[in-house]
Structure formats: structure tokens, C-alpha cells
Amino acid sequence: MAAAKTASVASASASSTSKKKSTGATHGAPAQRTQSSRKSKRAWRKNVDIEPVEEGLEGLRVEERAIGTFFQKKKDEELFQVDTRGDDQIRKTLPKYSERVLTSTKILSERSAVPAVFSRPTASSNPAKRKAVSHDDKTRLLRMGKRLRKGPFGAYVDPDQVGEGSALLELSEAAKKAGEYDVWTEDAPEKVPVKAPQTDNPRSHIALPAVPSPHEGSSYNPPLTAHQQLLRTAHEKEEQNLKSAQEVEAIRAKFDEARAVVYADLVANPVGVPGMTIDTIAEGHADEIEEADDSEPLPPKKLPARKTKQQRRKAERLRAEKRALAEKAARRRMLATVDSAKLLRKAIARNLATRERLRVQRQAQLQEKLRQGLAGQRIGKHFVPQGAIDVQLGEELSESLRGLKPEGNLFRDRFINMQHRALIEPHAPNPARKPRRKTKEYEKHSYKRFDRDS
Questions:
Q1: Under DSSP, is residue 262 helix (H, G, I), strand (E, B) or coil?
Q2: pTM of the model
Q3: Are 355 and 347 in contact (CB under 8 A)?
Q4: Is there a contact between 208 and 417 (Cβ–Cβ < 8 Å)?
Q5: What number of other Cβ atoms are within 10 A of residue 218's Cβ?
Q6: SS3 for 29?
Q7: CB–CB of 79/46 below 8 Å?
């Protein structure tokens, strides 16, 4: 019944499309419009009224847009059906509040059953053009016939020299495959699976706890051996820091000394390049230079004479003898190594086994080092801090909880521990800089006018 309703609506809309009043009879010969001339048959044919034919064709187009084909080609089973059960969901599809529908909603809800026309037909979509000559074959035939072909701006192109001047360029692969892939189709191309990198994440190997237990030497009443060991470790670390600071100071002193030397050269020799000494020519030395210029010039060097054919043959013969001797020595060494092939194979196997053993040891050392965290390692352009050692001297130990003083910083320890476990990237300390505000002194204009009475 729904299809019948659609057909009636389509026919009604088709009949109401044009209600122009014809000027002739509805039966018999075609009606004629008002025409200025009835002189010839051509004028009669030109003004024949074909509005009924156009209305019928428009009705067929409406049917095709509604169901995809004409009602005359449909069977009764496809158009009508007997509903013996009813539909429970019909109430949900009906409008609840208003029966009126916006015109924009009506326009958007209307969808034609006729497939859309492709803006760029391809060889696969149009079977009539499959047997057409391709662009490559056409170019090849033109080259074989040696016929001139017009290019851009009406200029003739040379079919022999491709890519020279205004000659034709070969089509790229993208241009040849243009139009074959439809973006709006539901068949999406297969996704290429992304492979994970083979390198393991260092975080998976770190076995450092979130809150590590402190050293027993840092207790308020530690054992003597543990306290001495922790003091020795802190002493060594402090010595290393002092040594690195002294190296930095030595480098700075060298730079300052070099700047002082350059400044002294600029003061002593204001003309010229810094570091360059300009000598002054004495009078006696200038006379000697002039006498040397007046003396006779040195004789030119003699070029080596051209070798004769006999000398060239002799040199070629010597080169051939040296080449033969070298080949003979190489052959002798090769024959000597043939007998020791088994020994060489065993030596190579031992070398490979040693390398593999060393590689396994290095990997085990790295894994063990990684389990302890990233302390002291370089990540990017920064080093992971190792953290300060909180230890008290012997006279500072309280030996009781009453006189215990807090040491260290829990926030700092937690932050450094997260860097050791590769949870936070290391970075250089960047303290907040306070703006430098200087007092600007200036003289008022009234003080400049001291010669006048204010």
C-alpha cells in the first residue's frame, strides 16, 4: 500500500507541474500555439504543442526518482502486500508533537533512487570507452607517424625529445590511476598493521621501588660500620664534585687569560689583526733587498725530457715483472693458507664464541645496571641526577628520637626517584629569575636653568 501511495503522489505532482492553457482541442490534431507566421510547414512544426508529452515524461521521471524504475515494469507482488498482523512500532515512527514538517526537512528527506552521475567517468565505469585508444598508444602512434602534435598555447611539440622545452612529459603513476578509487565508497582499503619497535622500554626492566628504603647508616643511631661506609661514600662524591668544579674554574681562567692577551695586543697594536706583529724594515736591510732585486734572475728549471720508445718499453716491462712477482707471492700465501684451513676455521669459531660471550656479559651488565634505575645516565641532552646523600657526622648524631633533627627533603627525593624510574624526563634546573630593576637618575630641567630666577 505504501508503494501505491507513492505512485498516486507522484502522478499528482506530475499533473500539477504545468497547468498552462493550450490553445487547441484536446483530441484530434495537435494543438497550435499563437504563432506569428503560418507561411510554411516549418513554422507549423515549430509551434506544435507538446505539453501533454512533457507531462507524461516528467511523471515517468518522478516514478524513477521515487522507486528507481517505472511502475509499469513492476509486478503486483512488488507493489502491493496484504498486512495481516500489523506493526507495533508504527506509533514510535509517527510525529508526537506536531504534524507540520519544515520545508527544509522535506527537501533533505527526499532522496532519489537513481544513482548519482560520476563527475569523472573511468574506463571501468563506462564499458563503451574500454576499447578506446589510450593516451600512451596515441602518443606512440603519433611518434611512429612522425606527425606534429599541438601542445599548450597552440605550440607544436617534438615527439622525439620528451621533456625538452615544451615537449610532452610522460604521465606519472598518480595521473594514470586517477579516478579509479572512489572516496565515498564503503570499501575502505586494508589497514597496514603497525609493528612495534624491537627495542624494549627501559621502564619495563627497572626494578627500583617507588619508596626505596634508606641506608642504615642514615639512622639516628646507626651501626658504626654502616655509618663509616656512608660517610666514605659521601666524601668520595664530594671530592668528585670539587674536582669537576676545579676543572671548570681552570677552563674559565684559560679563557680569561686569552682575553687579556687579546686586549693587550689591541692596546699595543691598534692597527692590524689581533695577534699579528708588524715588523719595520731597517734601512740597511732595505738596501740589501734592493740589491737582491737588481741581481740576475735564477735560471728556469729544466723540464724532464720526453722518454723514447725504448725507455717506455723498458719501464712497462719492469712494471709487468713487479706485477707478476706480487701475484706469485699472493698465490704462494694462498697455497700456504689452504693447508691451515682447519686451524683458521677453529680460530674463527673461537673468536666468534668469545665475542658472543662478551656480548652476553655486556647485556647482563646493562640489564643489572638498568634494574637499579637511570641514576647518572644521560637521557637526551641532560643527565639524570643521582640525588644527594643525607648523612650526619658523628658529633651530630642525636642517639634518641627526642633530639632528632629532620634531614633531606621528601619532595626532592620523590621527584628524583621518579626520574630514576623513567617516569619523568630529566631537565636542567631553571630557577625563576627576578627582574632586575635599576633606579634611573636624571636631572630635571629646572636645575639646568640656574642662571635664571625661578
A1: helix
A2: 0.39
A3: no
A4: yes
A5: 16
A6: coil
A7: no
Angle at Cα 35 formed by Cα 30 and Cα 40, nearest 5°?
80
Closest to 21 (Cα-Cα) out of 53, 43, 46, 49: 49
The torsion angles phi and psi of 293, rounded to 5 degrees, stand at -70, -35
Cα→Cα distances 400→254, 390, 407, 442, Å: 51, 18, 15, 63
Say which residue the cell 512488488 belongs to. 78
CA distance 69 to 129: 26
Neighbours of 438 (CB within 10 A): 5
From CA 126, how far away is CA 179, in angstroms rounded? 12
Helix (H, G, I), strand (E, B) or coil at 67: helix
How far CA 153 is from CA of 147, 164, 167, 170, 402, in Å, comes to 18, 16, 12, 19, 100
Q: What are 383-423's pLDDT values in tens digits?
A: 898 888 888 888 888 877 787 777 788 888 899 999 999 88
Asked if 373 contacts 206 with a C-beta cutoff of 8 angstroms, the reply is yes
pLDDT of res. 3:
43
